[in-house]
Amino acid sequence: MNIPVTLNNMPLLECFASETRVRMIELLGERPMSVGELAEMLELSSAIVTKHVQKMESAGLLTSESVTGTRGRRKLCSLAVDSLILNFRSRPSEEQRSAYAVSIPVGQYVDHEVQPTCGLASDKRLIGMMDDPRYFADPQHVGARHLWYGAGYVEYRIPNYLVGTQSVREISVTLELGSEAPGYNANWPSDISFHLGGVHVGTWVCPGNFGGTRGLYTPEWWDEQSSQYGLLKTLSVREDGTFMDGLKLSDVTAADLGISAPGSTGKNKTNDTGNASASKGRDISLRIESRSDAANPGGVSLFGRGFGNYDRDIEVSVKFSDSSREIRS
């Protein structure tokens, strides 16, 4: 997750100005803890710890849910992100000039094949009927801010703005997602597979489907007993492999995707089915899939702008290099 060091991000940056909050991050890095457990470890009152939790939740660093304990309900806290990268440069560097970024609404998929439980919601109402895959083809699906499916996939198109001899050296996709359980269940693992340009780049095990506390941006009309938010994750396909929040998922590299500028020549790479990559000189496909035969067939929930804990769509950045420029230099 890349964070520009600007005044707009002060709520997040301020979280690191407190020794107590940094210690909370250390503790939650080991395992989820309740407010009571954190208070005991920090030797503070639960009321003080609750204020720290609320600030860190608002900044997107923590998530919490109400769970049943031995003495009634308790608030269980978890880290929402595994890593952060702070960007200090206000002027675009050479590296930033050799990149572009796009934002894709979660409802703007171009292909799908889903199985119940499934559904779509705008920021104002449900789109069609729940658990009826036919509504994923309804023209109103482009307005979806939240969608979910128990098995199958949705596929998006990332525009290919490369020209001449430029080639991709890194693609990063940041999105808010969780697994898909009936209602919600924080302990509902799901093997979520990602494909770029027809190439399976890696599978990440999502820990659960989160609810109990309304998402920061989840609309009031949404059922409190349904999933409320996801985890903000960044998938990066780089020159040295594929990573999720900096942790390696696979050895697939950006070169393996075979993505180049439209009209360029050269040998296509092959995808995971052995066919020529569909990304050669064309838009770049992004498929998010939960297979019914996976070890953890837990489905997918996607949250976009106006839903969940992060008011954002699927954010994609593409970094590229130019072989002709390298030769001249």
From TrEMBL:
Q: Which domain of life is it from?
A: Bacteria
- What is the protein's given name? Helix-turn-helix domain-containing protein
